[in-house]
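look at this stuff:

>
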Amino acid sequence: MHGSDLRTPTLFARLLAEIPVLVADGGMGTSLFKLGMPTGSCPELLNVENPEMVTRAHQGFIDAGCDVVLTNTFGGNRRRLTLHGLENRVDELNAAGVALVRQLVEECGRPVAVAGSVGPTGDLLAPLGDLDHRTAVAVFEEQIESLARAGVDVVWIETLSCRAELEAAYEAARVTEIPVVATMSFDTHGKTMMGFAPGQFSAWSQAQTPRPAAIGANCGVGAGDVVLAVRELAEAHPGAPIVAKANCGLPAYTEGHLRYPHGPDTMPVYVELAMRAGARVIGACCGSGPGHIAAIREEVDCSRARGRVSAEEISRRLSVVPRPKATSTRRRHRRR
């Protein structure tokens, strides 16, 4: 993850090289639901049918001060779009998602990188499922090529839990001349749902040619789990750019809405510990809005965090939630 490992320089690569800690955006799905997106609808379809809603969500994070904005394309691959009968609109929906963000960042008056969000296929890869490696690579290639043609600064693979799917996504992404970030969800006793540990993720990353521009942890159970994973990733590869993008705890269904327990007031502690754990890019995931990102921005700008952080301090200050043993290998379909 040194300069020689990065692809052709882009805005994201330059920002990562020049700025000690970058601020990423928050939960796109959460924002769209708050703006009126119906439950069960396809968020990516909004890129063409209700672009004003998507623009409002992105604008909130840009106004809050983020340096990196993820496109509304998390589920923009053929396998996921098939659930909505939209499998033949991959290029259209991904290109539209990039165009919406690109217009906003060009108007905002400061450098903001456009990250092409690439989520999981939603299917289990062989031998646990019926999706073979070659097909998975083709599915990711179709989406990633659309994002690249539309002009993203970085391909942002996120919320994966399976090494096989990670390898398929990265194989598809590395043929581009664009930096690639990969994040996984470490939400089951310090590992992903499929048993992949942060140390294994770091070893995988170091074995790639070229290496990812950054790796990290996103979503999960809450900030504590993400920061613990960041700490392990940083220890396994000191000096590597690490991403922390935590959700806001486990939500409760109250008065007809999902409500997350961690508000913007919890972000300063999260940011302090994430920085001390080794994070170079810090944002938020499910349950977060512009207020959370504004709080992250303020803490990143003002923090004088020093000294490595222990696992005990992270667990104590961020209330790491114990997870029950998994009872099924079915893929959970989470949206930011």
